[in-house]
Amino acid sequence: MSAIHHVTAISGAAQRNLDFYVRTLGLRFVKKTVNFDDPGTHHLYYGDEAGRPGTILTFFPWDRAAPGRRGTGLTDETRFRVPAGSLDFWARRLAERGVAHEPPVERFGEKVLTFADPDGLALALVGVAGAADEPAWARDDIPADHAVRGFHGVTLALDQADPTGAVLNDVFGLAETAREGSIIRFASDTTPGGIVDIKATPGGPRGGMGRGSVHHVAFRAADDAEQEAMARKLAANHRLQVTEQKDRNYFRSIYFREPGGVIFEIATDDPGFTADEPLATLGEALKLPRFLEPRRAELERILPVLETV
Predict the structure, then answer these.
(1) Helices (DSSP H) in 127-188: which residue ranges?
(2) Terminus of the chain with fewer CB atoms < 10 Å: N or C?
(3) What pTM, to 2 d.p., does this model score?
């Protein structure tokens, strides 16, 4: 069974993005690199101490990107796990930092606190029983018993649920576990990140990708062999073709659009974020893939300087 490996979104100003996810939500800044396909912009990674699969939220900070538009064909919400009973702490913390949020509600038997990041990305914190026993990256102002534990899951806004549900079940091993209103929940036993909800709104307005929207959702493959097996299933059972494998330094990836239009990635668990720097200093230095090292001086001139401490 698989689960979410990482979620990649689009933001505006890089420093504002870093400040929010590190200083407000308390995630660790685990990697400062560039968009390998557009190296004139950063690619910023946040997660737990080591950036374990299932904890990683990444951003392409494109200052001039137009705002995104929520609607079908996009990821509608990204949710993090926190220990049950932590939502009062988080509601106070968000309010103290001027982050608007909705009152907690109950979904699928769990308390959920919804809010948005500075670019409008829809986020939620979910109080999960047993999450307090999971690894945590804590700050002085965020005790370990309240800290984020990685992803709870994502919600996809789709015109039709069944074709995507079939992919989630057949390829990634997520089974339908519950329905609540228009939302269908698919889940695996893998945590964190083992939940994908589908919100089906037939004929609803199409979303538009931009600042404050998710670019793609990546699912885990243990290694190249499992990734290849998933690609074969996509082709044979769902007539979906994947890209060639791309080396992203910290994982190896293939991409495709699921039947509802959301970009999915399948990323290997290995080699991880200590492939090019020690665990103790993750995120401190600009890391580049080998093919971009000859351009380091140029890129360091054009990329904005980030205050990471």
Answers:
(1) 162-170
(2) C
(3) 0.97
